[in-house]
Amino acid sequence: MIPNKYNPENVEDKWYSYWMEHGYFHSTPNEKEAYTIVIPPPNVTGVLHMGHMLNNTIQDVLIRRARLKGYNACWVPGTDHASIATEAKVVAKLKEEGINKDDLTRDEFLTHAWEWTDKHGGIILEQLKKLGASCDWERTAFTMDDDLSEAVSKVFVDLFEKGLIYRGYRMVNWDPEAKTTLSDEEVEFVEKQGNLYYINYQIEGSDEKITVATTRPETLLGDTAICINPTDERFIHLKGKKVIVPIANRVIPIIEDEYVDVEFGTGCLKITPAHDQNDKTIGEKHNLEVIDVLNDDGTLNALGLHYEGKDRFVARKEIAKELEASGALVKTEKHMHKVGVSERTKAVIEPKISVQWFLKMEEIVKPALDAVLKDEDIKFYPKHYNNTYKYWLENIRDWNISRQLWWGHQIPAFFYGEGLEDYVVAQTKEEALEKAKVVTGNTKLSIDDLKQDPDALDTWFSSWLWPISLFDGIRNPDNEEFKYYYPTNDLVTGPDIIFFWVARMIFAGYEFADAKPFSNVYFTGIVRDKQRRKMSKSLGNSPDPIELMKKYGADGVRTGLLLSAAAGNDLLFDEELCEQGRNFSSKIWNAFRLVNGWEVSEAIEQPESSKTAIAWYTAKFQKALVSIEKSFEEYRISEALMTIYKLIYDDFSSWFLEMIKPGYQQPIDALTQKAAIQCLEDNLKLLHPFMPFLTEEIWQHIETRTPEEALIISEYPELVSFDEKIIADFEFASEVISGIRKIRKDKNISFKDEIALSVLDNENASDTFNAVIEKLGNTTKIEKVAAAVEGALSFRIKSNEYFIPVSGAINVEEEIAKINEELKYTEGFLKSVQKKLSNERFVNNAPEQVIANERKKEADALAKIETLKASLATL
Question: The whole model's pTM is what?
Fold first, then answer.
């Protein structure tokens, strides 16, 4: 029994379980050509949001289409351990339980972290199943799985032995909340309202003072010089002198450097080498002392004097008050400036000198630049992201790959002494011991003498290997799966991680596999609300995807998202889009029920109108298929769906089914019924990648199918030549049908009443669709005439004039009265427009567009009057 209404709730779990049960998602190497996608691994503790919905819907569309087209489709899912985000959540959970991370050993903390991961890690992947994601779940990976972790260690050792990884003191971005360093790409710059503090520094041995402006007065406790430009005549007399740092009362030198812009600020700079990259550069040049006044958590340390233990922002306010009380604070001004914040925690970043591990980037980027910009082995969609990619790679700095975290891949470096270089790098502690014995010459060293670096690697240092390590290409590059599935085909991701992930995967591909990781990168837009704000939990403007799917069905939400998701353009999400998707589901369901509900007769001869309709729809389908294929080639997924939408909604449901529909309570001929089912099945194949649940449900209702005949593994329609002329002929015929229907409606002529139709055929129009016109217009056989028919209603299509006799069809007196009334109104309207146009003042002063609008009104009114008078003449 086929339900009257389509109910996604009764369908989605049923078919997803069916697909899983029969292993349609699973892939193993075979004789077919592989089509591979690797999922951008979401954070292991994450939950589904609208960005995931869009990204994974597009991936599912691509993988389902590839499956239908006969490829061995493999979509590998997985999650990322997300060092900073996950550790922050575990620390917060422990805090709620009264446990301080600093009171735990590393192993104790990791036990809690794994418990958290085991509890929350699978949530987002289960949610993706609700969306219909046809991932190969048997291949589900986690960036901290043993084999992937081993690959990370192997790569670190390899790069170190090549001389590409080094350890040293550098100015880094420090996140005081996560208590770790960050790469440049993990820092966002946001406009913030702050203050500019003008502070007097007294010249030693003098009453003279010089003024320095700063946004961070707390750092003055770490000042080691004041810098002036050697050409600045205002300060020539201060050369070689010293100043006293307020509050600290330390004496520091006045130095000279051309770095100082004489036109900017007061012309004097305070130099704090421990807390500013530019100051560090100047400090190294002038051999200045480095005084770090901050703890890792953003509080002031013992060098912060009586502000020790106070948060940097609290200290800032109190120091400003102390400076004001002592008379050292000249003034304070409001100041808008860009401040670096952590991409993850949103904490304000502190520049900090620290010992870190770095990966040299100068050589590793060259093949990646050529692959995208020169050889085009890898193509970006939209192409304008090539410019973004080029700019970043050409201005790249060495990658800071170490993080002061416990959750993640521990750096495989082992220390045998306290010096900066007293370490060896190895995959295991046993290998490290042998290396350390050789380096030190001490054969009595034991494993207990080695201490592994406590830092973890940047999360991206594992995910940059994702397309390779998923198929064990790092540890075992000659294995069958790696050679079969790599390089992958398409990557679907957001442009916000083009630096974090996309570029780095390209680096890794050429460095470790000597091949690109993928052929195409499709950048989705950002999902925004109607006010163009990025959807986020904090703004409360992001709907719950699971609730949306409950309300509109997974297919409805998928369709709603994709109909407005042009490649690379942000999506302005509106829940009405999902409603449109749900309504489309209902439209298709009703079309299926209509076709399925017709009584079929083998005895009836196929009408000419049905033959024509089938020929036309077959051609229309093929023309749409050409457009769809082109859209997919250009990664215009939204356009492909819109083409299918119009094909099914307008051409199939509104026109084709009307053309072949049998008379009321009459059976349909078997040939037409069979053709209609074939057209419907072809539609379902096109639509399946976008709306998998609805299409499989209808497919399985059409007839009893074996598992080998399921829609998900059926064959995609083939492109064949088609008749362009029949499509053009239909466009003309559809206008004729619309003209007949308009007269029927305007003149209140019942659609049940057959009417005569004749044509003055100036266009020499094709008669291919005459039978269709006669059926849908309920007319007699179309008669060609040599002259206009007197006493008939008429309408024009191009230069053709069609006539419908009024005898018995309408009340002539009523019609004459109605036309006269409309004529009188139109003539009055024309008079008012012409009066306005005859007014020279109006014509000379009104904008050109206004005049053009009035002239168009005049022309339209004149044409209408002519038509009305012609209609009167026929009555």
Answer: 0.85
